[in-house]
Amino acid sequence: MPSGYCGRVSLTGVVRPEHQVVKGGRNIYGVPVGLLMLESRFPRIPGDAGNAATWPYPVLYRVVRGASPERVVRRLESDDLLEPFATAAEELERTGVDLVTTNCGFLVLFQAEIQARLGVPFVSSSLLQVPWLGRTLRPGRRIGILTIERTSLTERHLRAAGIGPDIPIGVVGMEEAGGYFTRTIIEDAPELDVDRCREEHRVATRLLLERHPDVGAIVLECTNMPPYADVIREISGLPVFDLVTAVGWMTSSVHRRPFARKGPASR
Questions:
Q1: Fold for domain 126-242?
Q2: CB 126 within 8 A of CB 223
């Protein structure tokens, strides 16, 4: 059945058209995700939230001026960027997206405030998956978190994501695995050595497993890390979650695949 076609499939496989009425009220249709972007220049390879090729569906981007990587990672505590991000999120919703997300996990600090102003789901950070994952693992297992910079990931970030003391976690920062990846992103460098970044992610994964051999799943805080998720999975043998998995999960809830109806109801 063609995408967007409204009809029934009979037992013989014949499509039977149905009367269809649709509602308006939006500027744009068919773009399920709106993404709030930091203002940056560093390269964004496939897998990065800021690379449109990462997503299997259209994404509408909004750049928040003045929100540099360094400012958001290290100096977001002041909340002076809350209004620009919230306003951009509201604009995306008015345009017609079904879900708003961001391209920095540290924006979890704004989760509650921005969500309160939206009528669509808001996924500020991949860290929102940690509480749910904590309930899926057997007792004695912890969630491993790889972050762009461990020294900047505070208790306030964890609490904003719903990660309380009852959820065991282990955290490793990329600055502990060489620091090239961290410097390139936070200092907004114009070039990116992908092989070097891949190797640092190998080192960070091994370090996480050495420190916390009881890790049962890994969450990548940074939205620039998904390009290396395959390496992390290969080394750890564990499920790896990131912003791509979080947005994919949420998007599947608002864009359901229709199933052909069989039996008496389809006749």
A1: Rossmann fold (3.40.50)
A2: yes
